[in-house]
Amino acid sequence: MLIRNGVTFPEFSRSVKDIFIEECIKDGLASDRALSAGRISILSGIPREEIDRIVREWSEVDGDSDRHRFTRSLRVLSEWSTDERYVGPYGWPLDIPFDSPDKDGVSFSELVRRLRRGTSAAAMLDELLRVGAVRRLESGVIRLENRAYILEAQSNASLNQLSTAVSNVLQTVSYNMDVDREEDRWFERTVLADNGLSAKHLPYLAEFLKDRGSQFLEAIDAWMSARHPAAEEQRLNVGVGVYMFVQDEKDTWDPIEHPKFQFRAGLRDSETAGQNA
Question: How high is the pLDDT of residue 205?
Fold first, then answer.
């Protein structure tokens, strides 16, 4: 996927380096340990001078990377869909004005301001309008069109959406590996076609899942929306994902054993072409 989207190994390596540093910092914050470049260097194996440079670049970006914009947008949509002040009697998000005469009244600006101070509500609205997540009605109020953050295909933001989805699955698997009792594990199941599935039936399965899966997720969304935590209760970000997958045949290949594999280290492309000829 990275190769198809033109992401080279140095770019991937740099991104992973950023993530190692970020996670080391988060672990330190969670445990109240002293945060220093030296400690992060020991935990991550990354030289201190690189840590200093990368953290300095973060501050210069001012949190406005694609990944951070994507995360902030998701939080706005999630809060709009679950906060009892922003949800109607049937669990569907209310149409809201951009601003309210009352500073703390229900409005898009108040929602954005409450989630992250310093973020421009106008810029957030432009982003959500761009991806079709919201719509401005003729009356001027804003309507939430999609509870999911629908993104342009092959964009940087869509890659961030993919990383978030994969991260959620891995966190569930990781959690279940660390829990001894079956009844304490989070729900995680996979259904496989025992004898495979005819290619002609794949579109029908996709339509079946789109219909039944959407109904299932909407029921879960309504269930969670009806159980908003009280102010004094611990609040957790919880979600459920349903997805269809088709295994790529290439994922089962062993390149060395494949009959077409003829690569030789140090051989130029022209020499390889001559030998094949």
Answer: 93
Is residue 22 within 8 A of residue 176, CB to CB? The reply is no
Q: Can you tell me the distance from the alpha carbon of 239 to that of 130, in angstroms, rounded to the nearest whole number?
A: 25
Q: Give the ranges where 96-187 is alpha helix by DSSP (H).
A: 108-115, 121-130, 156-178
Domain ranges of the chain: 9-61, 66-144, 189-252
CATH topology classification for 66-144: Arc Repressor Mutant, subunit A (1.10.10)
DSSP state letter for 230: P
Give the span between the Cα atoms of 143 and 137, in whole angstroms: 7
d(CA 27, CA 54): 18
Averaged pLDDT for residues 177-202: 90
pLDDT surpasses 70 at 265? no
Q: How many CB atoms lie within 10 A of CB 10?
A: 8
Q: How far is CA 81 from CA 31, 100, 228, in A?
A: 32, 19, 11
Query: What confidence tens digit (pLDDT) does each residue in 213-228 have?
Result: 999 999 999 998 888 8
CA-CA-CA-CA torsion sign (216, 222, 225, 226): negative
Q: Give the pLDDT score at 157.
A: 58
